């Protein structure tokens, strides 16, 4: 079940939703284990080696169950929604729109999310440089529930991201974060600086109910710098033809970084100063998109094709693609 825990962490679900989904998933797995044991008892001497084709079918079935549990439990807008997700997907999801199949169209995403969370935890668990970690930012008045990676003091926001080497190299060469990542951090900045009282008030009630969450510790935040920690991996890369190509890509990247002696060449950091009004257009985008989502939800409407926040580049992974096509 570890892969599912990692997936829902990546999706930044509020803790109470995470626990409900995990509990349902545990019940399903217990039933599966019982059935499996019964099969073994009745066929004690029938064993077969691990089969990838069967494993793919198992992943397909389990991803369908997991995605359905997640969709049924999701009642809020997360940071990924605001940063990069198509507004139609968000509205369909929060209106509990039924779909033909909940299974992931690209199953390696489950492995990629597990790797991403493992990398995320590895850095957090082995560093004392962060003053706050995994901070819950829930704002009922805006239907927002997100979790911020890390803070250092009152003015440095830290986001950890894993990515393929091809994207990593672009970041190294350009010295710029991915645009979606920057939008995501601007959402954190906006909510921390403008909704802190509501975040703390609601969070305190959640803690009183027995739930364990990390609330912001300080009474005021003024985010002046955003730091991105990028970690490269190519285990599920789709833009290479062979492992030789991956190795050559890494060799060239190490040469670019001049990092023969740097064993952590696959980790880099970028710090962006956001005190010079650079954040303003990004925060305006977040605010406008959030208001638009809530308008559709309040009125039970689906965004039209002409909505500026409809992103047809996301159709391949979208569970609601057939609804949009019809």
Describe the structure.
By secondary structure, the protein is of the alpha+beta class. The protein has one domain. Helices cover 52% and strands 12% of the residues. It contains twelve helices and five strands. It has a five-stranded mixed beta sheet, with helices on both faces. α1 (2-10) crosses α6. The longest helix has 28 residues, at 15-42. Mean pLDDT is 83; it is low at 1-16.
Structural key phrases:
disordered N terminus, alpha+beta, 326 residues, single chain, globular
Secondary-structure map:
Layout: H1 2-10, H2 15-42, H3 52-73, H4 79-83, H5 87-94, H6 108-125, E1 132-139, E2 144-152, E3 156-163, H7 165-174, H8 179-194, H9 196-208, E4 225-232, H10 243-257, E5 267-273, H11 280-299, H12 321-325
Parallel strand pairs: 3-4
Antiparallel strand pairs: 1-2, 2-3, 4-5
Helix pairs in contact: 1-6, 2-3, 5-11, 7-10, 8-11
Percent helix among the residues?
A: 40-55%
Total of domains = 1
Instruction: Give the oligomeric state.
Output: single chain
Order of strands across the biggest sheet?
Answer: 1-2-3-4-5
Shape: globular
> What is the H-and-E element order?
HHHHHHEEEHHHEHEHH
Q: Report how far the terminal alpha carbons are from each other.
A: 36 Å
Radius of gyration: 21 Å
Brief write-up:
This protein has 326 residues and is an alpha+beta fold.
